[in-house]
Amino acid sequence: MSHSPDITIVLAHFNDGEHVIDAVRSVYGQTHKNIELLLVDDCSTDGSAETARSIVEQDPRGRFLSLDVNSGGVGGPRSRGLEEARGDYVLFLDSDDTLDRHACKNLLHEAETSDADIVMARTRRFEIEAQRWKGWHDKLYVSREYYESIEDNPELSIDTIVVAKLYKVEFLRKNSIQFPTDIHYEDLVFSAKAFMNASGISVIPQSAYVWNIYPNEVRKSITNQRDSIKNLIYRLEALTRVEKAVDCSKNPGLFSRLQLKILRHDARLYLNDIVSHDDELALEILKVLKPFLLKVSPEAYAQLDVPERFLYGAALMLRPDIVRDAFTMINKRATWIPPLEPDVESSTYRWHSESTNELSTEPLCGALLSVDKSDVESTPWFQVEWYHEVREIQVNSGILSVRGRTFDPGAKLSALSSPNLSLRIFSRGKNKFSKILKCENVVYDGQWVLWDALITVPANWPAVDVDKIGIRPRISNQLTSREGHLVIPTSIKIPKKRLFNRGLINRIEAYRYRVYRTVDGTMGVRRLKSGTKRILVRRIISPVSKYRVIKDSVFDRPVKTNSLRWKTIYSLLRMLPLDSDSTLFESHMGTSTSDSPGVISSTLASHYPNHKQNWSIAQSKIIDGDYNSVTRHSAKYLYALARSRYLVDNQSLPSYFVKRKSQIYLQLWHGIPLKRMGLDEPDFADASMAKKRELVKKASYWDYLTVPNPYFETTFVPAFGYKNELLKYGSPRNDILAKLDNSMADNFRIMLGLPRDRKIVLYAPTFRANSRNSKRAIKLELDLEGWIDDLGDDCILLIRAHYLNKISIHPKFAGKIVDVSGIDDISSLFAVSDLLITDYSSVMFDYCTLDRPILIYAYDYENYVNDERGTYFSLEEFSPGLIVKDQQSLHKAVLERLTVDLDKDERHKFSQRFAGFEDGDSADRTVERVWG
């Protein structure tokens, strides 16, 4: 080669003739051509070195090198390649992996643009046996980023593999960064030294590397040989060298993150395996780990969740049995499992106190196995991952009887107002069914809640080929619910008797089931295989039960609503007589049973108890309570939509809905608008007349529209061209707020498990789009650590995301910051809160009913108001409270307003202009007008 290559690719090889050809081809197939390939063979013994040499030397850009002595790992070949590299940059490749086609092009472009010492790209893992792709630290590679040093984002250091990273050769040589050749896990040492010395680190979202993962029994790499004690010693030696190399005074962020990585990743790899190891080998692993774990910083242990702390406490006790208990806690995602008892001498609960008393000489162990009483007792019940355990299983006459118990160390459930304990049984797979069975004989016995349940397999399940049935314990009250796992201790005997579904034509047709313990120790029910004779009999008699199959399963499953068959069926159903004594309710497109439709439903039931009510429920939504529900977009839903005389909604019914002449449609819109809507939206300015007419036509279906105030009447009503009757009674959902007194507010606090002696702040932002993945949690623009530091002692923060968004709050904030997004009825959250923080959400209008402080946290105000859609008024000109745009100002404003109501005058002006008057009788007046 007459000129220097831009990139040298170092390919380490040993005895891998089967895969090295693909690796080399991926190098020569790069779209960036000015590269050099150095294939370094580590004294292969199977003849594959000649295969590698022949393919490398087919291209003048490649050189074949060989070590004189086998190094025993990839450190030797990589170091040799680094010595020989002529490129400005170096990229590492293993012989059983490949480079993405544009890897060199993308990495080099970023390196030349940013002049970074390291450029990091995404790695994709491919499981050979399962033939599926998996990510690798994908959260690090969301977008292009540049950092001056690793201290700007220490999180990057968790990606310790050296592949998919482009290193500046001059930088590596200047800082004498090399691979150690006398140990395995050399990547750990190399990466740590590179990160701590780098002046400029770039991250790109593109993929650069394909990491092929082979079944262990086929190909066992150094990194997946965790069952070897010698291998553990290798890893600990590498980690010890990393600790010595990283100066915690110069790189405190890097040092701290690598310490946490030891606990979250390195040690966990071996502790995970203890679950399946015998006690002798497990104890040997713990003895090797313990001296190293004792050297990990207390700050790293402090960042662990309670189950993780318990895990390491058990490891330091050298107790494999308690380590397995901790994994039960982790794998079941239980917040606490027994034994967890209060310590009379301190304000803590101690896990396995009988064992920790023996280790009083190990302060770290005792601290890890303790949890503050406040953490146990102040965590709201619906934030707890409950531990449910089977006490006894019996099968009599085909019916399953389960005696169980729920661990409640803080006595939260006994303090609740009438909690409901139930079991939800459900089918898994394509044909989804769900049924909630109430538990009986509930007894509060110290730290346990005892209960019984009878389970009968539903008759229609075999008709849809259900092989496995799940069982989930469920705790609920009027506001929310919480599900968990049902654990079967190994001491519980599982009966071999069979269950069978009842109500079938005869026992020959019936499918048989049996209780079993899943691989993770929970309870399940699975269908037994049928014999040939039974299958033949079913084929003969199946037409007799065909009607039952359709009636019980098909009618309540969502189907494609744009098919000709669907439209034809709907047209025929609309010819049937209306049921004049029936109402179909829908709230937030079937995702809720609250808001104004929920209030109207309960009011209607009290006025007209014999009136039939059906609720539209989305397929994924599970509801508690005695509702007659139909799955949205199912045949049953279509039937109710076509035949119900009354329809109640707070958003919009499906686009295929066609109103019948005698149907009465009540629209209870879910909020007062700030942003322009309907015909006022810019999209409609240039829209066709047909599109505008369609919008007005859909609104014309509404016979009644609730109007909370004059502002709503002058904005929302003309925006939809609405001409029918206006119900100027206020908002039914706000009736409870208008009538709220201290006793009612206290009752809501009890139902939510919130202390009476703490101030409550509610943060309820509007909908936020997640452009990357709508199913992922959105990023909260709140520094929760900072909130705890500034306000954690003064108040509890409740966070309620928009119903179309999801959020994630770390368990370490439990009891101080609470995710209340699962609570449908936001009125209960208004009732318990002393102050509301929002942004542009319509909740600001409703909260004015309580006349309590409101803060507008508008960190993206300019982006919001400059959006093409526009707003009906300027929030800066008319606001119910102070507008803050950064978190420091937010914290200061909250502290001030929890003491003094500084914005009362402005809020009253806002309320009079935009929120209107709520007298608390909206629901009664609405029901009398529509149904009276």
From TrEMBL:
It is found in: Cell membrane. Keywords: Cell membrane, Membrane, Teichoic acid biosynthesis, Transferase. It comes from the Bacteria. One of its GO terms (cellular component) is plasma membrane. Its main location: membrane. It is a peripheral membrane protein. Gene3D superfamilies: 3.40.50.11820, 3.40.50.12580, Spore Coat Polysaccharide Biosynthesis Protein SpsA, Chain A. Pfam families: Glycos_transf_2 (PF00535), Glyphos_transf (PF04464). GO terms for molecular function: CDP-glycerol glycerophosphotransferase activity. Residues 8-137 form the Glycosyltransferase 2-like domain. One of its GO terms (biological process) is teichoic acid biosynthetic process. Belongs to the CDP-glycerol glycerophosphotransferase family. This is Glycosyltransferase 2-like domain-containing protein. It comes from Glutamicibacter soli.
